[in-house]
Amino acid sequence: NALLQGHSAVSTDVCERLAQCLNVGFLPRIPERGTVGASGDLTPLAHLAGALMGEGRARLGDGPEQAASRILAELGWAPLEPDGKNALGLVNGTSAMTGIGALTAIRAQRALEWTATLGVSYAEVLKGKLEAFDSSLAQVRGHGGQARIHHWLLELARGSQRLEAAVDLPPVLDHQSIGVNRDQPLPQDPYSIRCLPQILGAVDEVVRDHARVVENELNAVTDNPIFFPDEGKVVHGGNFYGQPIAFASDSLAQALIKMAVLSERRIARITDPGLNGDLPAFLQGRETGLHSGFMGAQVTASATVAEMRQMATPASIQSVPTNANNQDVVPMGTIGARRTDHLADLL
């Protein structure tokens, strides 16, 4: 798609071959490591171009991995022989990190939907109070993401038989009165229920911003040099530099980890007999101690959150000079995109 913008000076033959590869499911084997995302994804894309030339390995659809030259022969395709800008255009760009980011964007949106849906179910289990979802709170906060989540949660909660209205508090005692109303219920829920619109509202904005950056990059010219035939000029610059994807990936990583933290806290509360109302310990319903119930699920969640937190360090600041210090600052965008995609797995 980047090459089709018309500023890369790549021939139509190359673009048509790439389209043919997509149509038949020709998939080159590409190593996930080995790019700093600075002069684009040179190493991964070199393996892609090499497969088109009959070098390296590939597979066709769900078929077995084999020599790329063999698959080209089966398809009746002559190996590509790129030269000049055709060769450079195939390897110089942010396509690897952007492709990973595009897949992660869809998964992050799906995770947000699950987190909101399960959040309402969790609130129902604990007989949470519906007022925390009141959209009036969003009106005075001013964040679009929070407003969207309030609307979403209210739709999910529509018709619930377990969510409660606001607690009807007794009149305030005058200042001379003493005593404590020990029978009064807690007027507010734990933050995992009460702050759900605020947490997921912020997550929603991060997910949307990441998707916006990725979509823009999918439709961008990210190689070098760039040709402007209508103006009769060629510009040498740095559009291959993957900083936008690097920053967006790092930001999304924090949002995915936050959803995992929220999930773990939910599991902890509903399995804890001191916090889960009248539910049995670990939701096992039998002899505590002899039967562990969902204790293993809670321990697994704790371990997973710990593992995810270890991956919270931003990739976008881990610049290590390469290329004899020509690439003296690099964005590490592909490393960040891969890490964030793995966080989506763990979430």
Strand order of the largest sheet: 1-2-3
Largest sheet, if any? 3 strands, antiparallel
Number of helices: 12
Q: Please mark out the parts with pLDDT under 50 across 5 or more consecutive residues, or reply none.
A: none
Query: How much helicity do the residues have?
Result: 40-55%
- Count of beta strands: 5
Q: For the CA atoms, what is the radius of gyration? A: 27 Å
Q: Tell me the overall shape.
A: elongated
Order of helices and strands: HEHEEHHHHHHHEEHHH
Distance between the termini: 30 Å
Main structural class = mainly alpha
Mean pLDDT: 93
> How much of the residues is beta strand, in percent?
under 5%
Short description:
This protein is mostly helical and 347 residues long.
Explain what this protein looks like in three dimensions.
By secondary structure, this protein is mainly alpha-helical. It is built from twelve helices and five strands. α5 packs across α7, α5 runs parallel beside α10 and α10 packs parallel to α12. The longest helix is centred in the first third of the chain and has 31 residues. It starts with 11 loop residues before the first helix and ends with a helix. GO terms for molecular function: ammonia-lyase activity. This is Aromatic amino acid ammonia-lyase. InterPro entries: Aromatic_Lyase (IPR001106), Fumarase/histidase_N (IPR024083), L-Aspartase-like (IPR008948), Phe/His_NH3-lyase_AS (IPR022313).
